Amino acid sequence: MPLVAVTGGIASGKSTVARRLAEHGAVVVDADALVRELQAPGQPVLAAIAERFGAGVLAPDGSLDRAALGALVFGDRDRLAALNGIVHPAVKEESKRRFRAAFEADPDSVVVYDVPLLAEARGAGEWDTIVVAHAPADVRIARMVEHRGLSEQEARSRVASQASDEERLRLADVVIDTSGTMDETIAQTDALWESLRA
Fold first, then answer.
1. Mapping DSSP to helix (H, G, I), strand (E, B) and coil, where does residue 172 land?
2. 187 labelled as ligand-binding?
3. Is the terminal CB of the chain with fewer CB neighbours within 10 Å at N or C?
4. DSSP β-bridge partners for residue 176
5. Going edge to edge, which strands form the sheet with 129-134?
6. CA–CA separation, 196 vs 169, rounded Å?
7. Which pLDDT tens digit goes with each residue over 64-101?
8. How far apart (Å, rounded) are the C-alpha atoms in residues 186 and 130?
9. Is 11 annotated for ligand binding?
10. Crossing angle of helices 182-197/14-24, nearest 10°?
11. Would the annotation count 42 as a binding residue?
12. Residue 56, annotated ligand binder?
């Protein structure tokens, strides 16, 4: 059965789409959750991050201090590339392991990868279907200001740090327009589910 990537820029509603697919019975592998697991104390990824960026990126309890790491890499292409070079291969390997496990458990399952940085990190190669949750940048910026308490400048810089809408939409097999109401997004996702099961 299909291996589906669900992607979208920050505050695009991608996780809403993935959650709805899970409600229908899809097995969802969440890239952000995977990253957090792989960066936990005792994991080789965290050790490699500390080795590359120094002990200052570790909190007193030995966990990753995300704010400290973010301050080092945000806006610095070389450092960000170094961090991605540590994290992305580990996430790719672990996500593939989970996809395999899901299909071994149920060959008929629909497996969904909820992944923000598909355009940046994975590309189009391994997916049966790529779904892009899409809302224009101005809508996403307004959502971050309203729902996440960011300043407009912070929201704009987060949008700017990701792939452009055009880059993401180029990868899309299916686009779910998330700029309308929640009900409209859910209806489009339900239609997607029917087509995936067909």
1. coil
2. no
3. C
4. 133
5. 27-30, 111-114, 3-7, 129-134, 174-177
6. 19
7. 999 899 888 877 889 989 998 999 899 989 999 999 99
8. 17
9. yes
10. 50
11. no
12. no
Read off the pTM: 0.87
CATH topology of domain 1-26+110-198: Rossmann fold (3.40.50)
In whole angstroms, what is the distance from residue 141 CA to residue 46 CA?
31
93-121 per-residue burial string, b: 16 or more CB within 10 A, e: under 16:
ebbeeebeebeeeeeebbbbbbbbbbbbb
Burial bucket for residue 62 (CB in 10 Å: 0-12, 13-18, 19+)? exposed
Pairing of strands 129-134, 3-7: parallel
Instruction: Check the annotation: does 195 bind a ligand.
Output: no
**pLDDT band of 124, cuts 50, 70, 90:** low
* Contacting residues for 69 by C-beta, under 8 A, at least 6 apart: 49, 53, 57, 83
62 annotated binding-site participant = no
| Rounded distance between C-alpha atoms, residue 150 and residue 152, angstroms | 6
Backbone angles phi, psi at 64, to 5 degrees: -75, 130
